Amino acid sequence: MTGLMSRVPTLRTARPTEDSRAPKEGTWRLWRELSPLLRLLIWTQLAFNIGFFAVLPFLAEHLGTAIGMAGWLVGFVLGLRTFSQQGLFVVGGLLVDRGGVRPVVLAGCALRIAGFAWLGYAEATWAVIGAVLVIGFAAALFSPAVESEVARQAVAWEEEGHGPRTRVLALFSVAGQAGAFVGPLLGALLLAVGFRTACLAGAAVFVCVLAGHLWLMPRHIPGRLRVRERGGARLLLRNRRFLALCCAYGTYLLAYNQLYLALPDEVRRAAGSQAPLSWLFALSSVLVVLAQLPITRWAGDRLDLRRSMTAGLLLIASGFAVVAAARPAGWTGTTGLLPTAGFVILLTLGQMLVVPAARSWVPDLAEEGRLGLYTGALSSVSGLIVLAGSAATGLLLDLDLPSCVPWLVLAAVPASAVALLPRRREQDGKAA
C-alpha cells in the first residue's frame, strides 16, 4: 500500500532517541510556528465546539421531558445523530478529495445553521429526527474537510523538522475541548430562557464561522491534490489494518457517547437533577486544555501509536468500572457524584491518548491523495458502531438489571477493543 508517509523518512522508533525527540517548547511557541491556515483550522475547531456543545449535552433531557420520548428512542435518536455525522464522514471525505476544502466547509456550516434553527422549533418526533439528521450531516461535511487538512498540514510540519505531527493534532484537540468547555456553560445559561434559545445561539455561532471562512479560507490550498479516479473505496475495504483501527476507534467513540446517554442518567439519580452535568463537562474540557500537550509529549517519549491507544482504551474501561463498583452502594448527593467525576477523569485521560494517536496513524495507512476518504471512513465505521451501541445502551439502561451491570458491559467494550488494534509495521510512522 502506498501510504501518505511512504515518502516521508521515519522520524522515530518505538523508543525515540534524544535526537528524534521534539523540542519541549511551550504552547505559545508552537502556535507561532504554525502556518496561517493551520491557525484558521484550529480556531474553526474551537468555534465548532462552542456552538455544538451549547446544545448537545442537554438534548437527551429535552427529548425525554419536553418531547416525551421513551429511553430507547432517546438513545436511538442520539445514535442517529452520531451516525448521520460520523457515519457519513466518508461522504464528506470523498467530496473533500474531489472538490477541495473550502466549498465543503461552507456547505457544512450552512446546513448546521439550518439544523440548529429547525431543532429549536421541532416538537414532533419526525421533526426532531429530521433536524438531528441535518445537524449530523452538516458535521459530516465540514469535519472531514478540517480534520484531513489539519492532518495533512501536520505531516508537512513534521516533514519540515518542527517535531512529531501529534503535537499539532494535540493542539487541535485542545482547541476542540476549549470549545467543549465554553459550550455547555453557555448552554446552561441559555437554558434558563429555553432550549430554543440555546439552539438559536448555536446557529449564530455557525453564522460567524461561515462568514470567517468566506473571508479567510483560500480557494486553493498549495499541495492539496484533487483526485478524479474512482476505486478508492474498494482499496479502503481491502485495507484490513485500517479497518481494524476504525473498529478500535469506534469503541472509544461509543464510550465517549455515554457522556450524553449513561452519564446524564447517573447524574440525575445521584443529584436529583442534571444541574451538575455542565460542571462535569467543564471538568473534562479543562483537563484536556491543561494536560493534552504535556501528555502528548510524555507519550511521544515512551509509547508508539499502538501502545498509546492501548493505554487510552484501558483507562476508558477503568472509568466505567469505577461507576460499576460504586453503583451498588446507592450513594447520592456529593458522594454519589464522586464516581461520575472519576469516570469523566479517566475517560478524558484515555481520550487524550487515543484521539491524537488514531488521527496520526491514518496518514500512514491512507492511499496517496485519499486522506479525506480515509479520515472520513475512520469516523463512518465508528458511527455505525455508535448507532448500534447507543440503541443497545438505551435499552440496557431501561431494563430492570442490577445497577452495576450496564456499566460493567460498557467497561468491557473498550477493554476488548485492545485486541483489535493492528500491529505496527516498520514503514508506519512512529510519531506517537
UniProtKB/TrEMBL annotation:
Stretches assigned to coiled coil: none
InterPro entries (UniProt xref): MFS, MFS_trans_sf, MFS_Transporters
Transmembrane intervals: 37-60, 66-83, 104-121, 127-147, 168-194, 200-221, 242-259, 279-299, 311-331, 337-359, 371-393, 405-422
Classification via Pfam families: MFS_1
Keyword Membrane: yes
Domain of life: Bacteria
Membrane association type: Multi-pass membrane protein
Keyword match Transport: yes
Keywords: Cell membrane, Membrane, Transmembrane, Transmembrane helix, Transport
Region feature (Disordered): 1-21
Cellular localization per UniProt: Cell membrane
Main location: membrane
Name recorded for this polypeptide: MFS transporter
Species whose genome carries this gene: Streptomyces djakartensis
